[in-house]
Each structure stands twice: as structure tokens, then as C-alpha cells.
Amino acid sequence: MTATQERTPTQGGAPDAETGTRTINLIQAVTETIAEEMERDSRVVLFGEDVGARGGVFMATAGLQERFGPRRVFDTPLSEASIVGAAVGMAVRGLRPIAEIQFADYMGPGFDQIISQAAKIRYRSGGQFTAPMVIRTPSGGGVKGGHHHSQSPESYYTHTPGLKVVMPSTPYDAKGLLRSAVRGEDPVIFFEPKRLYRAAKGEVPAHDYVVRFGEAAVRREGTDLSLIGYGGVMPDLEKAADALAAEGVSVEVIDLRSLVPWDKDRVLSSVEKTGRAVLVSEAPRISNFMGEVAYVIQEQVFDSLTAPVGQVAGFDTPYPYVQDKVYLPGPNRIVAACVRALNY
């Protein structure tokens, strides 16, 4: 099945007899994948604040301590620096740690460990040591969490050589990308868009599969404009594309899903075809990762553009408590940016 084809989902999580797929939500995909990787590889360990008996603040790790025991699934002190530092040490010594940071906003205390240790250990050791570890963290807005529970800090980490950075928007991608992250040889920052935890539902195969880093997904093919995003904004891109389609505009929707590395070839071929691009993310506009995408587009396919590259992002303010829907790039703001590009 291609990214642009649709199928009626199997309900209730039961496998479809014909296709071998079933429908689950994004948080179920995360929980299942962690369990499957722990079953597959005894080196995989899971730890973080309240991930054990409670199962995490969003219940993403519910039942895993009971299943695998407190030596492989355990709670930590409220110290992100310690969580990340322990993960680096475990990874260097041969384990496959999955460390949960309770919210992406809380990663600051562990920042030095991430950028000075995990990201650099391969290079500074001349390849003698690696840090195959995954830092999972709920990210983004849409749940009225305010400025300590709703930020989108991915640009800090995409700027750091040595890290892989991904953000799925579907259960299929959550499973495939998380498997790739756990099985890889590099430190991975695995952002999970919390507003899609239970809202994003989709089919996943029963068999083992991976989604390789650096491969975007074409969610909808089109010829008039390329609409590009990742993570929590993807349902809004689809709504904007539907609204434009009702007016006769053919929009191509691309989900980057992997930010480092990102799929330059697929993005550039799409923009060459359509001549217009609008880039969407939740993060504040200044130093937004999508600014890098915009630069590469104008550098590589400038002669194909019929309008300036547009960008829809969060505002350059702390994430507000009460103006959640105003801050986030909703369908109306996305459509408006597309209309500007179409009318240029």
C-alpha cells in the first residue's frame, strides 16, 4: 500500500485476516515496540521518572516493569542530567538504554550530557566507542500544558552533529522509527507529539519492520503546491489540503518524520514539480529547523520556484497557557500561507 492509498481500518486492534494489519494509536505503538525490543534484545533497558510502577505520566510504559522486572525497567531520581549521563555510560558499556525524559521541556538539565558526551563520543574516540541510546520524550502542544509542558525544542538537537532526531506522526512510523532507533549505533532523540498519542490511529503490520531514518513519507500527491511538516502538525496539514482541494488546488503533503537526517531528495523533487512550498512546524519561528529546509530548497531548486518559500510556525514567545489554539499552526494559518504562495 502506498502512502497515498487509503484502506478502511480494522477495528478493535484485532489483526485483519487478509492483510495481517491492525489498528492501534500512537502511544500503543510506542509501548508495544519497547516491549518487543526488550523481548528481542536482553541489552535493552528502560528508565526515567515514574516509568516503572506508574507507567509514565502518559502511561506509555504501563505494564513493562511488571513484565520485565525492576532491573530492566526502573524509576530514577528527578534529575535529567543523571538520566542522560547514566544512559551514556550504559550505552558505552554495551547496553541499549531507552531513557524517558518526562517532557521535552525538561531536557535542559541533561543538555550538556547530550551534546558534549552522547553526540561526540564516536568522533572523539576515533570510533572506539559509540553511544547507541534512545532518549524518548513527549513534545509539542495541543494539551494546554503551558510553557513548561508544551514546547517544541527539536532545533536545539538538530543543530548538534552526532545526534539523530526523529518525530513520528502515525502509529506505523512510531513503531518503525523506534525500532530503527533502538537497533542503531547512534544516540537518537525520539520526540513523541503528545497531542497525537491517542488521536493518531492507523494500521500497523503484525510482522517486524523498520522505517529508515532520512526517508520522508508522501501522505498525498499533488501538483500545485508542496506542503511539508512533521509531528503534531500533520493532521492540520491534511485538513488544509482538504480545504484547498475543495477549491480545486492540488496539494502534495510530505511528512518529514526524520529531521536528522532529512529527506532532501524527496522534498526537492516535490518542489521541483509543484514550484511552491509551505513549511509547517510548531516550534518558534526564529532558528526553526524548517529554516534549514527552506534554505536548501532555494539553494538547490531556485529556478523551479514560482513563489517564495512560505513558513508557518509557532510565535517567538514562550508557549502560552490560554492561547493554545492561537499559538499552534492550525489549518486556517496554513491555508492562508498556501493562498499567498498560490497568488504570488
TrEMBL record:
Cofactor(s) of this protein: thiamine diphosphate
Family matches, as InterPro entries: THDP-binding, Transketo_C/PFOR_II, Transketolase-like_Pyr-bd, Transketolase_C
Keywords: Oxidoreductase
Alphabetical list of CDD domains matching this protein: TPP_PYR_E1-PDHc-beta_like (cd07036)
EC number in record: 1.2.4.4
Domain of life: Bacteria
Region (Disordered) residue spans: 1-20
Coiled coil: none
Protein name: 3-methyl-2-oxobutanoate dehydrogenase (2-methylpropanoyl-transferring)
Top EC group: oxidoreductase
Source organism per UniProt: Deinococcus aquaticus
Pfam families registered for this protein in UniProt: Transket_pyr (PF02779), Transketolase_C (PF02780)
Biased composition (Polar residues): 1-11
Organism phylogeny: Bacteria, Thermotogati, Deinococcota, Deinococci, Deinococcales
All copies of domain Transketolase-like pyrimidine-binding, residue ranges: 24-199
SMART domains registered for this protein in UniProt: Transket_pyr
